[in-house]
Structures are given as C-alpha cells and as structure tokens.
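Appendix B, Record 12. Input sequence as logged:
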Amino acid sequence: MATSQIVLTAVMAVFLVLVAAWLSRVEEWRSYSPLGTGGVSGEAGETHREKPSGIVRWLTTVDHKDIGILYGVYSVAIFGWAGFAVLVMRFELLTPGQDLISPSFYNALMTSHGLSMLILFGTPILAAFSNYFIPLLIGADDMAFPRINAIAFWLLPPSALLVYAGFFIPAIPAAQTSWTMYAPLSLQLPSPAVDLMLLGLHLSGISVTMGAINFIATIFTERGENVSWSNLDIFSWTVLTQSGLILFAFPLLGSALIMLLLDRNFGTTFFTVDGGGPILWQHLFWFWGHPEVYILILPAMGFVSLIIPPFSGRKLFGFKFVVYSTLAIGVLSFGVWAHHMFATGIDPRLRASFMTVSLAIAVPTAVKTFNWITTMWNGNIRLTTPMLFCIGFVSNLIIGGVTGVFLASIPVDLILHDTYYVVGHFHYFLMGGTVFAVFAAIYYWFPLITGRMYQRTLAKWHFWLSNIGVNITFFAMILLGYGGMPRRYATYLPQFTSLHQITTLGAVIISVAQIIWFYNMVTSWLEGKRVPDADPWDLKESGLYTAEWAWFERKRETALADGGENSDEDS
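Logged structural output:
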C-alpha cells in the first residue's frame, strides 16, 4: 500500500511538472496583458500581444470581460441542473405517495437544489455582470487584481464537482443534509459525499471572498478621474455593499464548515449535544445565511435601479436615498439572523430584539420600492423586455417582502415556521426577485456583449411565462403553508394534493419559459441581427447614455476603423 501511494505521488508530481512546462510555452502567459489589442505602452515600450485564440484564450484569460462570460456560462450550467433537480422533485409531489423516486434521492435533490441556487449559481451569476461591467462603468482598464480574478473563477468548477460528487460516484450516496446542513443530521450521515460537499462549499466561499476583495479594491482604487463617490453609479454602490457583506459573512461560513468537518472526521464536539450544541450551528449558519439573501438581492436591486430610468425616460428618483438604503440594508442584515430560530427556544428577550430589527430592515427595502415606482410614475414608459422583467421584479419583491414581514413577527412565525409558506416567501424574493433582475440585465446588455439583438417576441414570451409560472408556483406554496403543509417532505396528506399539483404546473411553466430563453440566447448570439449602432435602446434621447454604452461605441468605432466586423450588418 505504501509503495503504491509513493508511485501515485511521483506520477502526480511528473504530471504537474508537465502542466507547468506546457503553460510556460502558451502565448507568453507570464507577460499576458488583458488589453486584447497589439500595441506599445509604458515607459519601457513593452509590447502587448494579441489575445490567444480558441480554448487557450478561455483557459488563460485575465480580461475582466472574458472572465465575466466564463462566470455566466458556468452559472447557466448550474441553473440548468438546479432546475432539473426541482422538476424531478415536483413530479414526485404530484401525488401524496412515494411513486417516482426514493426518499433518499428526493432528499439529495433537495440538498443540491438549495445549495446550487444560493451558492453555486446565485453569487457567481451576479459576479458575471460585476466582472464585465464594473470596470466599464467606473472607467477602469480592468479589475485591480486580474490574475486573482481568474483564480477566483477557476476555483468554482472543482467546487461544484465536489458538491455534486455523490451523484456521479456510484460507490457513495449523495449528501442528504438539506441545504441548511443542520446538526446533528449532518454529523451522523456516514456518506463521504457529505465531506466532499463541505469541502466544495468551502472552496466556493474562498472564491467568492477573493472576488469581493477584488471588487472593493477596484471600486476604491481604479475609478477614472471623472468618477467620484458622488457620481458613482448605483450598480457599483450595490456591488460594493455586497462585497462588504461577503467579507464578513463567507469567512464565518467557511469556519463553520471546517468545524463541521472536524466533528465528522476527528471527534471534535463543536456541534454535538455534549459539546457546543446543534443550536450553535444554526447561529453560525444563519449569521451567514441571512446576509446571503442580501448578497443575492442587492446587485439585483442595482440592475433594476440602472434599467428602470432609461425605459421611464427620466433619472432615478431619490438617487441618494437609494444609496443610503443600500448601505442601511448592508448594516442591518447582520442583526436579523435569529429570526430563523424563533422556534428553537432561545431567550424571549433575544427573540424580541431580533424581531424588531427584522421588521426594521423592511424600511430601506420599501424606500427602494417607492423610488422605483416614483421613477416610473408619469414617465415615458417603454415596455421592452428588460423593463418588463424590472416591473416583474418590483411586483414579486413586494409580495416576498410583505410575506417576510409576517415571518418576522414571533407569534406568526411560530405557526408558519418550517411550512411551505417559508418556501413560497423566499422563492418570491429570490426567483421572482433576483433571477428576474438577472434576466432584465441579460436582455439589457445582450446587444453590448454580442453586438446582436435577441428575438423580441421570444423574449416577451419568456417574461410572461416566467411571471405567470412564478406566481402560480409560489402563491400555491404560500397557501400550502397556511394549510400546515411542512416543507422538505417527499410525501404528504391527501388534502394537499390539489395545491401540490398546481405548484407542479407552475414549475413546468417556469421550465418551458427558461427553455425559450436559452434557445433565444444561443440562436441570437450566433446569428441574431446586428445592432445598427451603439445605442440600441435610444438612451441618448433621455440623456441616460451611461459609461458602458460609451465604451461600446468606442469599441465599434475601433472595429470599423480596422476593417470591422459590421460588414454583414443586416445578417
């Protein structure tokens, strides 16, 4: 056994040396510049090479725009898996009994769906836009640390493989801890897939933290001369606040994951009944878990704050108040975690204080909502697809927020805790909120990224089916919660059958909508009609022609001067 391990180590060492030797020969990667065009810069007259082409470009790039696209492709793949997992679960729930899959596989799908959407998809898809557009919006050449930016992305694929290890390694059953990983269940499950999942989540947290440091450094140090704190765009403000939340939240989650690994493998007692106790895990987890909600929603609010004004024909109403409310949410988000724990028996005085802060955090969110509505009020509304998704975002956020206020009230929460009401509430907030804002941003910036326009009819079908599906699915879940249906169960009492079937119908509608979206994006990227100019949304007419579109105009002018890509303008 010892000899085989030594041989394996030697083989791996040789392999790593060969990889290093190959990288040293790839396009002079050590002196690679993200400029992407040949030229001379600097006092020493350093020559910058063209970007390498093909797969080498994507494996070695440190260009913030390329890395943004990599984040986006990775996130779409995770989104597809999470959607498939939830569809299988919903089809199982068409009938009260256990008909389609086993209870253990249901639990595994539920675990992977939650972790995929919250950690593996949610933060990276927002990082895709942050990477691509933050430098353009603030007038920077690139991120402050381009290579760290690339490393942060390349940590994500292996982290996802570790999280999903139990699904493609036959010898070990997939993790069944639920996405909250509560002790003592997460301590007692013997499957090595749980350990691999915890390592994968830790790796993902390292990636997110590296990205947050990079965004903070970029916004603080790389702004153009004409970009001050007073005229910094609203999206950059939300990303800056999000990055601050990440710096405080994710390292704590990483520490908790390490403690859980130590309990599982080395006999420590951080979360055992005779040690720190299972409730300690809940405190640590939710100290990350509730700020994570705002880590996911704040950049989405930035998208909406940036997109609503040009399609309303006016500037964002109360810009400073939107910024102040963003900062207020960032501060208050760390004082609400125990509202997830009202039913655990914690001191009533503590419960009351957390209830107060949980109710108070609704105020800055309401400030934003009123500002968005006021921006649209009596404006010159253009119901483009980005605008439709923004309006859908606002309406779903209101439903999610109002249902959340009820859960912040201790007497109500004690009744509705761990029912489908909670599932409906946070899905309104995250699927109807964050994901809708992401789609708004995708449609808004699609012409800038690709130089082409998507199919508008398909895009509007995507919105209407998504909005109808979201409201059917998650409103039915709220009604299930009022009826007392507990969450996380693969079977249920017959009286809940009709509402579960309605929920499944809504999930199917949402899935059809996303298939339409994916088809539209791929075909439009490959063969969509090229945009005739750098202002596809007529932003100059309203005086809201922002910095990223000015960059796009310069890019097109440079391409045309070089014999550009627009010779097939009408293709």
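Residues 26-48, 566-571 have pLDDT under 50 and may be disordered.
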